[in-house]
Amino acid sequence: xxxxLIIGGSLGGLLAAHLLREAGxxxxxxxxxxxxxxxxxxGISTHPQLIDILKRVGIAFDExxxxxxxxxxxxxxxxxxxxxxxTSRTMSSWGRLYRSLRDPLPPESYRLGMSLQHVEQDAxxxxxxxxxxxxxxxxxxxxxDGLRSTVREQVLPDLAPxxxxxxxxxxxxxxxxxxxxxxxxxxxxxxxxxxxxxxxLAYPVPGRNNETQPGRRAYNIVWYRPADPDRALVDxxxxxxxxxxGTSIPPxxxxxxxxxxxxxxxxxxxxxxxxxxxxxARPFFQPIFDLESPQTVFGRVAxxxxxxxxxxxxxxxxVTKAALDAASLADAARADDLAAGLIRYQSxxxxxxxxxxxxxxxxxxxxxxxxxxxxxxxxxxxxx
Length: 384
Ligand SMILES: Cc1cc2nc3c(=O)[nH]c(=O)nc-3n(C[C@H](O)[C@H](O)[C@H](O)COP(=O)(O)OP(=O)(O)OC[C@H]3O[C@@H](n4cnc5c(N)ncnc54)[C@H](O)[C@@H]3O)c2cc1C
What we know:
Largest sheet: 9 strands, mixed
Strand order of the largest sheet: 3-5-4-12-13-14-11-15-18
Distance between the termini: 47 Å
Structural class: alpha/beta
Helix content: 25-40%
Radius of gyration: 21 Å
Number of strands: 18
Bound molecules: flavin-adenine dinucleotide
Strand content: 25-35%
Order of helices and strands: EHEEHEEHEEEEEHEHEEEHHHEEEEHH
Low-confidence stretches: none
Mean pLDDT: 93
């Protein structure tokens, strides 16, 4: 049986493992974290393509997978809903999807505490070399190791993620902690707030232990705010000891005054119902990057998911793209001629990835443009 070594045990790696196994391969996932991953409360919007792929690998997309929302509202600064439109979305969560993909895999197919160091390959096979010195050989190596992919850094050393000029503040609060009047008014709606030059969206997601029953769900807020890379981002990423952690910082190290300031800003800029929920939560932020790989196949190595392309999250399709990449790769890997199959994979998924990156740039252009002087913000192409 042909063997795939999958680097990265998040959603992209798990989807690849299921789909390659379905295609008749032995697929083993290697994740550098030593314990099961947690979702930090990230909400994930789902698409029919993702649901189809989950069904293909035997995972039912039932009521327990997410929360259905049927109305979009826009709230102004005073909390008044000035727009109300019907919608049809199922909001799941990173953690819910992770468990549904992780639990059915045999334990020997998902190995924690395995940090890839580098890859070696020749005509006969590909070898993953890990930080502890372990060497494992297979027929195919899948780089599903995310935005800061070790695999990609080796095959495309000059390619760096592109900072979009803004961060996403994220917050999640248990439904039971949302004040009842606010809960009744907005909890089950997909809510937008649009402070000038910013964008906030909020919606219900499964609870911390993936519950979808009323009373046990959670509320998720994502708030995009410009942060100039030389000053604001440096300040945000500096911990209480004065150490700057680069372009991101582990949430527990965010300085208390930074958290207090963003809660105060929420009260000043966004609808009071949303600001109240935000103030009761423990917000953290993620800088927004995008990334476009010029090539995704290198001999027996294939990049997939965020390791290959990252579109800004406005597209809301990172997980669906990872699923479509994984399905396309597994279809290609059915071929007896693996090299030809991999070239087909690349020619199919690369234009798709580039398209999503372009769409994300278009949708986030006005956020990026906020770092330009006001008179330049509306020029065509100003935001790139
Ligand atoms: C603010 C925000 C909102 C988003 N909202 C949505 C949404 O609504 N819908 C949606 O579909 N997507 C959304 N996304 C995107 C989505 O989270 C990602 O696209 C998705 O998680 C990609 O998964 P991945 O498996 O490719 O990479 P990742 O989730 O980044 O996983 C990479 C894994 O590889 C591991 N790894 C890294 N290096 C090594 C190594 N050397 N050895 C071993 N393991 C390694 C890491 O520990 C990690 O577990 C959002 C993203 C952001 C930032």
